[in-house]
Amino acid sequence: MILPIVAYGTPVLRKVAVDITPDYPDLKKLIDDMWETMYSSNGVGLAAPQINRDIRLFVMDSKQIFENQEDEDKGKYNDEPGYRKVFINAKIIESKGEEWAYNEGCLSIPKIREDVLRPETIVVEYLDQAFVQHTDTFTGLTSRIIQHEYDHLEGKLFIDYLKPLRKKLLQSKLTDIAKGKVKVDYKMSFPKK
């Protein structure tokens, strides 16, 4: 089932999410719905807070980036062929490497894209869908997607990395998004007035 993605201004996007246990109600269905929602909205990642759940869960698929990449860009981000993964109760335990800029967007903040600096490599502890623990290192675009989705679990948005003046210049667009004055080709829900 395709779920509505909550828009900027919805309180859950600013909450620190809580850990879950294997007995979380209908977890398998929720994860399946998140995949369907992410793909139907042309996203590469989706965190539970974006579907109005304050839990530490996100899905991401960087494989599709590499499948759609031009030949001259192949291998550019050091993480080809990418990953398709579920992250439960994730914790970034190390960030390393040079910070690099990439133009990010967010399904909860449609029609806004900005360059964001993030470290090249991260080490993440997380549980998979079967609640098996992993500690893995990710680089390049995969690392960036994970950091972006992880931020959602921490109540942080990519616009928080922008310089104050740039954020101020975007304020009217952000206000319009919070008021539902934005057209997208996927299901959204907007903050209650």
- Tell me what the CATH architecture is: Alpha-Beta Complex
Secondary-structure content class? alpha+beta
Write the CATH fold name: Peptide Deformylase
Poorly predicted spans: none
CA-to-CA gap between the ends? Answer: 26 Å
Specify the CATH class.
Answer: Alpha Beta
H-E string: EHEEHEEEHHE
Shape: globular
Our Rg estimate from Cα atoms comes to 16 Å
Oligomeric state as shown: single chain
Using DSSP, what is the number of strands?
7
Number of helices: 4
Strand order in space, largest sheet: 2-3-4-5-6
Top keywords for this entry?
single chain, 193 residues, alpha+beta, five-stranded antiparallel beta sheet, globular
Care to describe what's here?
- By secondary structure, this protein is α+β, with helices and mostly antiparallel strands.
- It has one domain (5-189): Peptide deformylase (Peptide Deformylase), CATH 3.90.45.
- 25% of the residues lie in helices and 32% in strands.
- It contains four helices and seven strands.
- A hairpin with a 5-residue loop joins strand 5 (109-127) and strand 6 (133-139).
- The protein is globular and about 40 Å long.
Helix/strand layout:
Elements: E1 5-6, H1 27-40, E2 45-47, E3 57-61, H2 63-67, E4 84-106, E5 109-127, E6 133-139, H3 140-153, H4 164-178, E7 188-189
Parallel strand pairs: 1-7
Antiparallel strand pairs: 2-3, 3-4, 4-5, 5-6
